[in-house]
Amino acid sequence: MGNKSSLILRPEEVQQIQEETGFTANQIERLFSRFTSLDRGDCGTLSRDDFLRIPELAINPLCDRIVHVFFKDCHDDRVNFRQFMNVLARFRPPKANKIKLNSREDKLRFAFKMYDLDDDDMISREELLNILQMMVGENMDQEQLGSIVERTIIEADHSGTGKISFEDFCEALSRTDVERKLSIIFLS
Ligand SMILES: [Ca+2]
Predict the structure, then answer these.
(1) Relative orientation angle of helices 81-90 and 11-21, to the nearest 10 degrees
(2) 126 alpha carbon to ligand 1 midpoint, in Å?
(3) Residues whose beta carbons lie less than 5 angstroms from ion ligand 1
(4) Using one digit for the tens of pLDDT, what is the confidence trace for 107-141?
(5) CB 23 within 8 A of CB 31
(6) pTM above 0.85?
(7) Other beta carbons within 10 Å of 19
């Protein structure tokens, strides 16, 4: 059954999470009960599969990629409640709070990592094509997608490498409402 003591939320933990994420104590309590309901093994941590059962994520075509970024920095492939809350904080709408986690730059960095599957800090043609395929599904043929990728790379690539750097990425999205597009409401 795992370690039951890890399933109790201590007041000092609530305060710490409040400071880190900007969620109120009440929201933290509610999200904790969601966390424990996702935690099938009652072990105080969530696996990738647990994450994929979050409805707000499951409906997103990029769900797998979002989860991939969350688990990138995890060593044992499990996320505890504090890490879980840090993750949710990144998806809060920008006006919800003024913490650093959901700033424009942070959201752009997160989005960039979703594209950059091999972690080389560049988005290649293949990586861009891959994401576009996930987003449009079967609605567009390969040739059309290929030409969108070519055009995007030509327009965005200012370093002449044939790939998109983080700086290129930010510039390409400078007129896009990234903050809103990368926000998910987890609490109604
Ligand atoms: Ca890459």
Answers:
(1) 20
(2) 9
(3) 116, 118, 120, 122
(4) 888 889 989 999 999 999 999 999 888 888 777 88
(5) yes
(6) no
(7) 10
